[in-house]
Specification:
The protein is α/β, with parallel strands linked by helices. 27% of the residues lie in helices and 23% in strands. The chain binds flavin-adenine dinucleotide (FAD). The site of flavin-adenine dinucleotide has 41 residues, from helix 3, strand 5, strand 16 and helix 12.
């Protein structure tokens, strides 16, 4: 904790100039190893059945750990695919595009740590993400951030990687989904979790009932807030209050294809809440296509939701870019785009948890020791000794580590 504070003070000058850049990625670089031993299977006398709700990163990680412990489990997934907020598109451009999670926060070694390997170098190619051609836009003024400040920022405050030719989805697929996919029930949208009896009865929207000894819910905090899932009995009041206290912003990603790259590496736009960032999605990829990404959460997303449809959002974005680049955006636009709206996707209902250092303890209550919660929101940046961990809250690794934690609780 102390180290983090000192660093924050030391670099407050550059940080102040850069606060609006990549709020999803604003994390310090000093990390310790994960608080959980990912692939260590805790010796246990538990030999019941576990149902996991949701096949995102948290659900798949929990399943992988149960598989290793030879515990009977099933994953009930609302959609017809796994991955949750980790999805990819391989058809739009000549490089694969991450529609959800994209950056590897902190260090690339996290990819190995999450699968229990101490090797620093992952099997897949990654690159350090350090663009220096970065501009700020407040709606009127468009100014470059001096490259030397960006260099200081990356060198001393902020570190992250990206996949070179692959995606987060490929990583999750290979390391987490494939070993457990045989136990996923797709199109199984859970509407009731009844833990009033000895066994937990989980009912899906179509009325199918599943029974188990324990349930791990990994649905997003947006889905929990929506009360779509009816818990019987109701969750403890303190836990409901904790769920409702979490800031889970609406968010979307827009990718647009252009015939030439008229834009810089990054344009960080001023916004009241969340973030709005244009970025060169092809930056340092093996690509010839010119794809500009827009990552919007919070206030800017709410503004886009006021528009009639996807095309109206694209038109608004083009108009903004044309304003900055004297019409160059419309001239170079090929007419192709992908809009992935996570805020209005019914099985997600938001983007990610606003960065907070500590996950409220009440959020982690396991009612009757029958219902457990996991997911990206259920992680702490700091461990019990105040060391910064690899568990960047709201990230992919937070989701994976929380899945491991939930299984550890069941097995302990
Ligand atoms: C636009 C965007 C950009 C991001 N960028 C990054 C990034 O660069 N780096 C990073 O580390 N993280 C990033 N994140 C965050 C990261 O994607 C998430 O934290 C992580 O993937 C969450 O995993 P999860 O398993 O906790 O939840 P989810 O991925 O939400 O998985 C929950 C699963 O539950 C299913 N489900 C929901 N309701 C039900 C139900 N009733 N019954 C059954 N199943 C249900 C859902 O379909 C889903 O598959 C980003 C997220 C978004 C949206």
């Amino acid at each position: 904790m102390q180290k983090f504070v000192e660093k924050s003070i030391l670099f407050s000058l550059s940080f102040l100039l850069l606060t609006s850049i990549f709020s999803s990625c604003k994390k310090d670089v000093e990390i310790s190893t994960p608080t959980t031993e990912p692939t260590t299977t805790t010796p246990s006398t538990f030999d019941g059945k576990v149902i996991i709700v949701g096949a995102g990163a948290a659900g798949l990680a929990a399943a992988k750990k149960l598989e290793e412990a030879e515990i009977v489990y099933q994953i009930l997934e609302a959609t017809e695919h796994y991955g949750g907020r980790i999805q990819k598109d391989e058809d739009f451009a000549d490089f694969p595009i991450d529609l959800g999670a994209e950056w590897i926060h902190t260090d690339k070694s996290i990819l190995n740590e999450l699968i229990g390997s101490s090797e620093p170098e992952p099997d897949v190619e990654t690159f350090l993400y350090q663009p220096t051609d970065v501009y700020e836009f407040d709606g009127t003024n468009y100014e470059q951030i001096p490259p030397f400040l960006m260099e200081i920022f990356y060198a001393d405050y902020f570190k992250e990687y990206k996949f070179k030719n692959t995606t987060w989805y490929d990583y999750i697929s290979e390391n987490f989904a494939q070993p457990v996919e045989q136990n996923i029930v797709y199109n199984a949208k859970v509407s009731t979790i009844d833990y009033s009896g000895e066994q937990v009865i989980v009912t899906t929207e179509d009325g199918t009932e599943y029974t188990a000894d324990k349930v791990i819910s990994t649905v997003s905090v947006g889905v929990l807030k929506s009360n779509f899932i009816n818990f019987i009995p109701a969750l403890p009041a303190a836990q409901i209050a904790a769920i409702n206290s979490i800031e889970f912003l609406p968010g979307l990603k827009l990718f647009m294809k252009f015939s030439e790259k008229f834009y810089p590496d990054v344009i960080s736009c001023e916004t009241a809440t969340g973030e709005k960032t244009y970025y060169d999605a092809a930056y340092q990829k093996e690509a010839n296509d010119h794809v500009l990404g827009l990552l919007s959460t919070g206030a800017s997303t709410e503004e886009y939701y006021q528009l009639a449809n996807s095309q109206a959002i694209v038109d608004a974005v083009l108009a903004e870019l044309d304003g900055i680049y004297n019409g160059a955006a419309s001239q170079a636009y090929t007419g192709e785009y992908i809009l992935k709206d996570w805020g209005q996707e019914v099985n997600t209902l938001g983007s990610w948890t606003a960065p907070k250092e500590v996950c409220p303890e009440d959020l982690k209550i396991s009612p009757e020791d029958k219902v457990y919660f996991a997911g990206a929101t259920f992680g702490d940046i700091f461990d019990a000794d105040d060391n910064i961990t690899s568990n960047v809250r709201g990230s992919v690794q937070a989701a994976i580590l929380s899945g491991y934690d939930a299984v550890n609780k069941i097995l302990e």
